[in-house]
Amino acid sequence: MMSTAHTGRELNQSHPPRSFNYYLVDGPIEEATLPTYRRELFHPTHPDQILNSKYRIVSKLGYGAYSTVWLAENLSWRENEPTEPRYVTVKIGVRDLETVKEEKALCDHIATAAPESGFASLLRLPIDSFDLEGPDGSHPCLVYLPMRESLDTFQEHEFGREVTPVLTKLLAARLLGAVHYLHEACGVIHTDIKEENILLSVEDPAVLDDFVREKQKQGPQPRHVSPDGRATYVSHPHLGPFRSLKFTCQLSDFDRTYPLKPGKAYLHPLVQPHTYRAPEVLLGAGWSAPIDMWNIGLVVWKMMQGSDLFERDYMCDKDGNYSAQAHLAQIISYFGLPPKELIERERANRHIEARNPIINPQGKPCKTVAEFWGGPFFDDSGEFIRKDLIRPGLSLEGSLTYPLEDEERALFLDLISSMLKWIPEERATAGNLLDHPYFASVMDSKSGQEELENNE
């Protein structure tokens, strides 16, 4: 373990230590390939660097347009006094990024809204934060407990497409608990619930020990060096194969949240992933917390079934671009035409203009939601204009092909259908669904773990 007896300037050194002989990669990689990339905005982080006199960088885990993420060893950890985690994940924001500071403030609010409830543990929240000085400015940093990959990667690489029924039940219950806490205790709408934002916990501390040991054994870590000497490292996000199913999940990413205000409905169309977008968002009928429930219903469906209920191929126009008309046609194919009440809401809001034009996916500045999504979608009699896009014979029950016992199947379908209602106010709340009989066998943590072990 490295000593921390150095000055702050030495600890935040920007040049690689002499003891490393790095592999070089040809051509720009990772964040340097993004269209918005500017070298001076990113901190020149490297393995073995010590941040904030406390965290020694082990390996790069990932990157985005506004940050890089690193696994680090916590130099304050003591084996005999484990009051702090041995390893952490450090998210290093680009220079002077105010959104990271805003995210930290929101996370502080979430963590302290109702700590006695225990629900905050279901959310991915930082355990520390600091500002890191770099050669071109200051970089806000958030520190987290390490997690494994996201649910989508797990589904793809570990179990094929679907998740086992017992694991689906356990993860769904935790996801509902997280959203219940956000809505009821924090007054926050997530708006971006998807598999990529559901992170799985490390099932055994030895996983991290072995990963770090392997990185140290390998020595050189691949990187690309630009002509000006800036190094960009290759990410290593996978901690190795899962050793058991004894893990949990946390909901992450709160940078797209909206305040939940009683009686207030939003019209902004740029929320939610395409596949999981709620109908009221597409229709401009006004949305609030129930859009999160629509998201959860579709995410949990995919956990069990292994595929999206609303298939991506049927959400596109002839040119392969996302189409709100095609998306609505899929929803109608499963659940019939929307109630007259929802169509009337759309018609009432159709001409409400945004203060500033919003650029739609085709690059056109739009003033209304209908213009943004290519509406209107219904004629004056309430009929869907593009009837040719409706696929006959589809149903929720007929699309569930995963083999479940009759009672379990009925409970699962009832759970999902309670979240996929046309009228937002008719959708079950997360708090209500925590008492749904589908979860009866796992709501006690001990019985849930026993059921998981019996099915492992």
Approximately what portion of the residues adopt beta-strand conformation? 5-15%
* Helix-strand pattern: HEEEEHEEHHEEHEEEEHHHHEEHHHHH
The multimeric state of the shown protein is single chain
Low-confidence region ranges:
1-22
Structural class: alpha+beta
Strand count = 14
**CATH class descriptor name of the largest domain:** Mainly Alpha
The main sheet comes to: 6 strands, antiparallel
Number of helices: 14
Number of domains: 2
CATH superfamily of the largest domain: Transferase(Phosphotransferase) domain 1
The separation of the N and C termini measures 37 Å
CATH topology of the largest domain: Transferase(Phosphotransferase), domain 1
Gross geometry: globular
Please tell me the overall pLDDT. Answer: 89
Strand order of the largest sheet: 1-2-3-4-6-5
CATH architecture of the largest domain: Orthogonal Bundle
Rg from Cα: 24 Å
The helix content, as a percent range, equals 25-40%
Keywords: ATP-binding, Kinase, Nucleotide-binding, Serine/threonine-protein kinase, Transferase
GO molecular function, one term: protein serine/threonine kinase activity
Organism: Thermothelomyces thermophilus (strain ATCC 42464 / BCRC 31852 / DSM 1799) (Sporotrichum thermophile)
Protein name: Protein kinase domain-containing protein
